[in-house]
């Protein structure tokens, strides 16, 4: 049990160090300590909460069940934070092509606050922040979140979703099962994709477009 806990803590520390480096990189490009930077502190907070609780769970008789619930909740919270931050960051670049696309679409679709993370990813691909492979990877991350939140983690189809180095196997009518270590890798990929998006906007003051 101590070996398992040690490996998990090592993975979490690695992700936290990545977040710190991301924050430093954004600050070098913005010279501001606004949401573009401090959002990485929120990611670290989610990971530290997980790290605090997991040793208790590993000592319980139902550690597999409770460990699964905890990492899934951490994943959902992390994605919700990323979604909130992306909307907030967009407001910093009101003259950018991406902001204009989002606002134009949102006029007839419930307003800016109702814009989905999927749509932001789609429009970000349209202007060249993500390529098609990155878009699909981000969409897979979002679809796993939706499955956990809205469908009691039960899949409606048989398929394989690839996220980073992790393969998520879905079986129709079966509850999604992902190892804690794999979920941490998916969280890592989500943060990496978000950071690419955040950094590209910061470097170009929001003015990104294919052909620039």
Q: What is the helical fraction, as a range of percent?
A: 55-70%
Radius of gyration: 18 Å
Number of helices: 7
Structural class: mainly alpha
Largest sheet, described in full? 2 strands, antiparallel
Report the count of strand segments: 2
Strand content: under 5%
Can you lay out the helices and strands and say which pair or pack?
Elements: H1 2-30, H2 35-58, H3 63-90, H4 97-106, H5 117-126, H6 132-150, E1 159-163, E2 166-170, H7 180-204
Antiparallel strand pairs: 1-2
Give an overview of the whole structure.
The radius of gyration is 18 Å and the shape is globular. The longest helix is centred in the first third of the chain and has 29 residues, at 2-30. α1 (2-30) runs antiparallel to α2 (35-58). The chain has helices spanning 2-30, 35-58, 63-90, 97-106, 117-126, 132-150, 180-204, and strands at residues 159-163, 166-170. It has one domain. It is mainly alpha-helical and 212 residues long. Strands 1-2 form a two-stranded antiparallel sheet. β1 (159-163) and β2 form a beta hairpin.
